[in-house]
């Protein structure tokens, strides 16, 4: 009898524990970032109106490339930087997913690991493997001329994405797909003015040198502050090379050398998140003691907004796959492609961060 009671008690305890565990799992699942405010419609890139595109157009006829059916083609994608950055991870995944979706015969992918010489050799190697169309994310705005010449010699069109190349459109490349980086800088400045009330001391964490993204995001931000908020004084500009660890190191140095800093403009989210780590380690409250605005739209940065450790994020959408292949199909269909195809980017702040988290990357 005693044994039977113990068995019943043990069974009841096990049932209670299992029920409790299932409830806990259910609660935990509902709070995960992957399911919070799921808004997959935010994922797709959209080009702005034709009026926003600029430059002379490039068609298959003016370029001189042979007619091509992408489904039976060998396409090459040259990634510029290590895929330790969420932007690069999402960008490469988007290219691969869209190539698979439309049935590209063969997709060659390379990663230059942030080395210009390797990106040149990567592109030349893909051409040797029979690449008939190239999508290139340039590491720098200058320096890819040898790779472009190799492609032109084989009449292989090149589409550049996310960074501009200082080369000749419709000769060295067909078109550039990407954001208006000056406008991103202006929007970041507007968000900073709103967060600070237009007063304070700002440090700029610059991106990598040698590309138009850094130059343009800086120009847009600086020009807007001069015009709209002279009370926001820029007291430091140091490069964090678009890397989280470098952003953290620079911020640690600035906390010591410029203790009066009240705001940080990071030219990508990774550097901004590095700054958050440095500020917290120094006993400061990011988002409150020091306002933070950055550019990209990574899930970690949007989560920091939700957590109150950030003030605004201007998106730079990395999901180039659908737009890149749609542009290629238009090109091979005989349409004229503008030199610059500018995409629309959204913005995140405390009012929409939680609901929009599912659309961040």
Record keyword descriptors for this entry.
single chain; 361 residues; alpha/beta; six-stranded parallel sheet; six-stranded mixed sheet; 12 helices; 43% helix; elongated; disordered N terminus
Notes on the protein architecture:
By secondary structure, the chain is α/β, with parallel strands linked by helices. The strands form two sheets. It has a six-stranded parallel beta sheet, sandwiched between helices. Helix 7 links the parallel strand 6 and strand 7. Helix 4 packs parallel to helix 5 and helix 6 packs across helix 7. The radius of gyration is 24 Å and the shape is elongated.
Write the layout of secondary structure elements.
Layout: H1 2-30, H2 60-63, E1 74-79, H3 86-102, E2 106-111, H4 116-128, E3 133-136, H5 145-153, E4 158-161, E5 175-178, H6 181-196, E6 200-206, H7 212-228, E7 232-239, H8 244-257, E8 263-266, H9 269-281, E9 291-296, H10 299-306, E10 312-315, H11 321-332, E11 340-342, E12 347-348, H12 353-356
Helix pairs in contact: 3-11, 4-5, 6-7, 8-9
